[in-house]
Structures are given as structure tokens and as C-alpha cells.
Design goal:
- The complex is a heterodimer of chains A (342) and B (325).
- Helix content of chain A is 43%, strand content 10%.
- Chain A has 342 residues and is α/β, with parallel strands linked by helices.
- Chain A has one domain: Rossmann fold, CATH 3.40.50.
- In chain A, the strands form three sheets. Chain A has a five-stranded parallel sheet with strand order 1-4-5-9-8, with helices on both faces. In chain A, strands 2-3 form a two-stranded antiparallel ribbon. Chain A has a two-stranded antiparallel sheet with strand order 6-7.
- The longest helix of chain A is centred in the N-terminal third of the chain and has 26 residues.
- In chain A, 50% of the residues are buried.
- The N terminus of chain A is likely disordered.
- In chain B, 38% of the residues lie in helices and 20% in strands.
- Chain B is built from twelve helices and 14 strands.
- The model of chain B has no long low-confidence stretch (mean pLDDT 98).
- Chain B is globular and about 60 Å long.
- Chain B is of the alpha/beta class and 325 residues long.
- Classes of the chains: A alpha/beta (342), B alpha/beta (325).
- The interface between A and B is large, with 40 and 41 residues.
């Protein structure tokens, strides 16, 4: 058993994944996944802290409880695949190769952030990594993801497009129009519904009366799966199956990943409407604790590796915070340029 | 050179651009097998194949969003809204996604949306719209509205070659009613450049789309009956629009009528009036006048629609008012 895994930068990890063809995760891959999940959790905690310190303005979102879904699903993607993440899928950005620094700059709206301060949080695009961030209108990116899948098919590229939506968001027209188009045209889209029990303050009982959101797939004639969103192995296996199906040209898949939104809708939402009993129940299923226990039981994750990761993650986040705080906002006049491409 | 109809000029331009650039493809309802509701794309499927002429599901938001996505990764989609009226079903995609991506992400979105628009065909409220004003107001969208076959061909080519989202308003009443000379070879009408369709000294008419023809007829009447010389300026592009051409014309004549088929209040004529008031105030010898449809949904019965629309007669009346001021 290795004393510690030599970690390359996130970009390199995404590029060279030796077992990307296999359905099951190797020990190395499980450690990488654990690293990304831990990184995501710590990164978001730091964002919340920075917001409370007044250093992040506007708002902040947390995907606490969603780490296995975001990381496990994105882990299936190859470099040529496209990622359209939502606001609780920060882990997916890291898996696809985005740097901690860039995401920190994004949250602090700096001039040298990927979106150059024109939009914040995950609302950026990095075409070199094939990451296209969401906009605030939920489900509005699914048709765009559909178009990218269409381009992939027309150009015979075999690239797959992975995107996400919430339980509430799966009621929006764009969700349905996109599945209609993707199913009929057999487009290579993997659509993951993150059912975290709440859409802002609205519980799922007020959003739909079907037992499983994945049953909506029946209406479009495509495969639908409901999975345990806190179990990284299950998330990976089912996502991989969907990605392979899309790559073969057989069309889209709908995956419903069941988790819990452990924090409020945003950092401003105390979420007092969530019954404490529900939160307690899901705390026991914390995906991070789950994978930790799993890897410790299998003797893959030693205390040495774990503290090595914690140190590296802490250093990387602190460096990113420092760098971002020292980076300036974009010059005021920049606001007026760039509406059109030349 | 050939004399072709307005609709054939659009087909010509589309066809040539598809031959020229293999990344151009069409996406819309009934455009392939059926050749389009108005037959603009008749014969295209046979020639270009189903990978380039795509019969879409009935879902305007998906069509516009998909066009945005395909453009984002380097293709050149030309999406069609079967009637301009149906663009509202995908409004959010255009104003939130297509329009803002370059500003926010520094990525071009080279897509075109063809919008058969306009009234006077007994279409009623939902087959007669001129929706340009909403999109005029959204930074990040370009808008063009040809009035002649020459401009129709030149502008569809320019729109397809532009790296930005371009909304192409083709007036459906002009399709088979207007014919004109169109070069058989490749040419482009530059987006942002207007055109003086008729030179004049006494009054400027700033207009676009179907009303250009009514304005030209009205100008003829003023010349022959009143001895008044009217200049007709065809904007051709609505965003960006040719501010210099407008101001030059108004500085020359001192009197201006702005005319469009869209409803008057909040129509883009108001923006043009503000521009003239601010930058050519000293040149004005009369208040700025506007003619547009009345502020109602487009009614169906012919008597109602006649009252609704700006006509040659209403333009003549407005011009005479200005001439007498």
C-alpha cells in the first residue's frame, strides 16, 4: 500500500486516467475521487467563511451533501467530453481539470477570473476544459447542452455532454423540450437530476406526485435510473453506463441521484423549514464520511494519506484565497466592452 | 444579375452560404421534408442531406438553445422560427443565453435566427408580429430587416458570416410580392449600414422592412402632387443601426418622419427619435414625427387590420403635415 499518492495537478489527473474504460474504480481512482470530494467540501466551507467575512459579495452556494454525485459522475468524462454543471456541482469542475485558484477568483469576481468579473461563482466557461457553467434560470442550459450534443453528433465526434438539474428544476419546460429533442435525435446527453429533497423552501412533495423523477424517462422512451447519490460507486457505475451509451450513439439517459441539501438554498437561507429529523437522518449518510469509512475499511486510505491530503487541500485553498484577495477587480471601464465578438 | 423575388433571394443566399461553409446547418420545424411553411428551404434537404437540414421537434426553446450550444462549439446554425410570433416561446434562450455569452465568457455565438414576420396577410394576432423591439433592447443581439431582394440575399449572407447572434426579420408579405435585381454571385450587405432608397431634399423618412415600399409610394405622391422632395432611408440593420446616415439625412432636410410596421409605443422609432433630438436638434425645422401600427394586438378582420396598420395614405398625411410645418 503506497504511503501517499503523488498528486499531480487536477488538470493532469483529468487527462491521464488509466482506467477510464473500466466500469469499476481502482484503488488509485477511489483515492482521487476522495481527494476531489474532500477538496470540494473544504473549498465550499472556505467560500462560506469568506462570505461571512464580507470578502465574497452577492451570495454563495453550498453543495454539501452532493459531493459524491458531482464528483462520481464527472469522473466518467474524458477530456473531449463536455460538462455543464449546476451550482452544487463544484466537485465536477475540479474533476474536469479546473484549478482551485480559478474557482476562487470566480467567487471573488476578480479581473483575472475566467469570466473576468462579468459573472460570478460557477457562471463561467472554460472552452479548453469544455466546462460551460450554468445561468441562474434553472434548466436554461439544458437546451444549450443539447445543442453541443447535436454538434458532437453532426461532426461525428463521439463526445458526450453531461449536465445536471435539480428536483424542482426538472419541472421547467426546457427540461422537457430538451429530452424531447435528445430522445428523438439520439443525442449524446447524460442528464442527472440531483434530487436533494428541496427546491429552495419547496419540498419535493409539492413539486411532483410521481415516486421517482427517473420515471419521467419513460415519457421520452429513454432509460431512467434512480440511484443513491451519496454512494460514489453507484454514481460512477450508472453514470459510466450512461456515458458509454451516449458515446455509442444510442442516445440520452436520465439519472436521478438522491441526496439531501444539507445547507440552505444559499448562504442567506437558514432553511428552518427543513425538519431537523430529516437533516439528522441524512447527516449519517454524509457522502464524505461514507467514502472515508469505505476506503479506511478497505485499508486504502491510511491516516498518513488522509492528513497528507488535508494538508495539501488546505494549502491549495489558502494559496488561492491569498492570490484572489491580492488580485484586483477589473477596471471600471471594462464594463463597456465585449458585448459583441469582432 | 437576375430578377428574383424576395423569398427566392433569401433561398439563394442561404443555399450559397451552405455551399460555401460546411459548418452552416439549418434547424427548424417543417423545413426539411416540407421545405418550410413558406417554402424558403424547398429542395435543401435533397441537396444538403438530413445532417444539414434538420426537421426539429416542436419546441422553440430547445431550437434556440440548441442553436446557441452548437454555435458555442463552432458550428453555424441557422434556426428558423416558423412565424416570428413563436420566438416568444424561446425568449429566455435568446436574451439570457445567446445574447450574453460573449460578454460574460468571451466566446462567440455565431448563430442566425430567421423570423418570418409582419402583418397584412390576415394572420391575426399570432401570425403577424413584428417582435424586433424586445430584442433591440437586449445588448448582445444583432438585428437585420431587409426590404428588397438584393438586401435580403446580402443580409442573410452577412448574418451567417457574423460571429454574433443575428436575428433576421424577413417580412412574409414581401416574399412573393417584391421582385428585384440580385447578383448571381457572392456579395454581402454590411450589417450596420443603411441605404438611401430615394434621394430627396425636403423631408427624410427613416424606415425599414415592409414600410419602405409604402414610404417610396408616398414619396412619389408628394413629388408628383405636391412638388415636395422626400428622401427614403432604409435602415436595413436595426442593431447596430446607421446613426451617421440618419443624422446626415436629417441635417440635410431638417424634417423627419420615422415609420415602421411595429406598434408605435416602444417601437424602435422612439429610440431613433431620441437620437435625432439629441444630435441633430439644431437642424430640425419641425418636430420629429412617427408612424407605426396602433397600440393593439394585430386584429384579424380586414377592416380592423387596415385601421391597425401604417399605410401609404397615413404616411402621405404625415408627410404633408411635416411639409406644411
Amino acid at each position: 500500500m503506497p504511503a501517499s499518492i503523488k498528486l499531480k495537478s487536477a488538470r493532469v489527473v483529468a487527462a491521464h486516467r488509466p482506467n477510464a474504460g473500466k466500469q469499476h474504480l481502482s484503488h488509485d481512482e477511489l483515492l482521487q475521487i476522495y481527494y476531489f470530494m474532500r477538496l470540494t467540501r473544504e473549498f465550499e466551507e472556505s467560500i462560506i467563511t469568506l462570505y461571512r467575512q464580507g470578502k465574497i459579495i452577492g451570495g454563495a452556494f453550498s453543495g454539501n451533501g452532493n459531493e459524491a454525485t458531482a464528483v462520481g459522475s464527472a469522473f466518467c468524462l474524458k477530456i473531449e467530453d463536455y460538462l455543464f454543471p449546476m451550482h452544487r456541482d463544484l466537485g465536477a469542475h475540479f474533476v474536469k481539470g479546473q484549478t482551485v485558484r480559478n474557482l476562487m477568483l470566480q467567487h471573488l469576481g476578480r479581473g483575472n477570473s475566467p469570466a473576468r468579473g462579468r459573472d460570478g461563482t460557477g457562471h463561467y466557461a472554460d472552452s479548453s476544459l469544455r466546462i460551460y457553467g450554468n445561468i441562474s434560470h434553472l434548466a436554461a442550459m439544458i437546451p444549450v447542452a443539447t445543442g453541443v450534443a447535436l454538434a458532437s453528433k453532426l461532426r461525428k465526434e463521439k463526445s458526450v455532454v453531461m449536465t445536471y438539474i435539480g428536483d424542482g428544476g426538472s419541472n421547467v419546460g426546457d427540461f422537457h423540450e430538451s429530452l424531447a429533442m435528445c430522445s428523438v435525435m439520439k443525442l449524446p446527453l447524460v442528464l442527472i437530476v440531483e434530487n436533494n429533497q428541496y427546491a429552495y423552501s419547496t419540498p419535493i412533495a409539492k413539486q411532483f406526485i410521481v415516486e421517482k423523477i427517473s420515471d419521467r424517462a419513460i415519457g421520452y422512451g429513454i432509460p431512467g435510473f434512480t440511484i443513491d447519490g451519496t454512494d460514489v460507486d453507484e454514481v460512477y457505475a450508472v453514470s459510466k453506463q450512461a456515458v458509454d451509451r451516449a458515446r455509442r450513439g444510442d442516445g440520452p439517459t436520465l439519472i436521478e441521484s438522491v441526496t439531501m441539501r444539507m445547507h440552505g438554498h444559499s448562504v442567506n437561507d437558514g432553511a428552518e423549514y427543513v425538519p431537523k429529523k430529516l437533516l439528522d437522518k441524512w447527516k449519517k449518510k454524509d457522502p464524505l464520511l461514507k467514502i472515508e469509512k469505505q476506503l479506511e475499511d478497505k485499508k486504502i486510505l491510511s491516516r498518513v494519506i488522509k492528513s497528507d491530503y488535508e494538508r495539501k487541500i488546505s494549502e491549495e485553498i489558502q494559496e488561492a484565497i491569498q492570490f484572489a484577495l491580492e488580485s484586483p477587480y477589473p477596471p471600471a471601464g471594462d464594463a463597456a466592452v465585449g458585448v459583441f465578438a469582432e | 444579375m437576375a430578377v428574383v423575388s424576395y423569398i427566392d433571394a433569401i433561398s439563394m443566399g442561404l443555399w450559397e452560404e451552405m455551399e460555401r461553409d460546411s459548418s452552416v446547418f439549418l434547424l427548424g420545424e417543417d423545413i426539411g421534408e416540407y421545405g418550410g411553411a413558406f417554402k424558403v428551404t424547398k429542395g435543401f434537404l435533397n441537396h444538403f442531406g438530413s445532417d444539414r437540414v434538420i426537421d426539429s421537434v416542436l419546441a422553440e426553446s430547445a431550437i434556440l438553445g440548441a442553436a446557441t450550444g452548437a454555435a458555442l462549439v463552432g458550428m453555424k446554425p441557422v434556426a428558423e422560427m416558423q412565424f416570428a410570433d413563436f420566438v416568444t416561446c424561446g425568449f429566455n434562450q435568446l436574451v439570457s443565453n445567446s445574447a450574453t455569452m460573449h460578454y460574460r465568457w468571451n466566446l462567440p455565438v455565431p448563430m442566425v435566427v430567421r423570423l418570418p414576420s409582419g402583418a397584412g396577410i390576415h394572420g391575426g394576432p399570432f401570425h403577424s408580429r413584428n417582435p424586433e423591439a424586445w430584442f433591440f433592447h437586449q445588448p448582445g443581439l444583432k438585428l437585420v430587416a431587409p426590404s428588397t431582394p438584393y438586401d435580403a440575399k446580402g443580409l442573410i449572407k452577412a448574418a451567417i458570416r457574423d460571429p454574433n447572434p443575428v436575428l433576421y426579420f424577413e417580412h412574409k408579405r414581401l416574399y412573393r410580392h417584391i421582385k428585384g435585381e440580385v447578383p448571381n454571385d457572392d456579395f454581402v450587405v454590411e450589417i450596420g449600414k443603411g441605404d438611401i432608397k430615394r434621394n430627396g431634399r425636403d423631408i427624410s423618412v427613416v424606415t425599414y422592412g415592409s414600410v419602405v415600399h409604402a414610404a417610396l409610394e408616398a414619396a412619389d405622391i408628394l413629388e408628383k402632387q405636391d412638388g415636395v422632395s422626400v428622401e427614403v432611408l432604409d435602415l436595413r440593420s436595426l442593431m447596430p443601426f446607421d446613426k451617421e446616415l440618419i443624422l446626415t439625412s436629417v441635417r440635410k432636410t431638417g424634417k423627419v418622419l420615422i415609420a415602421h410596421e411595429d406598434t408605435i409605443t416602444g417601437g424602435i422609432g422612439g429610440e431613433i427619435a431620441a437620437l435625432i433630438a439629441e444630435f441633430a436638434f439644431q437642424s430640425l425645422d419641425a418636430p420629429i414625427k412617427r408612424v407605426g401600427a396602433i397600440d393593439t394586438p394585430t386584429p384579424f378582420a380586414p377592416t380592423l387590420e387596415e385601421f391597425f396598420l401604417p399605410t401609404k395614405e397615413k404616411i402621405v398625411t404625415a408627410l404633408r403635415g411635416l411639409a406644411a410645418f
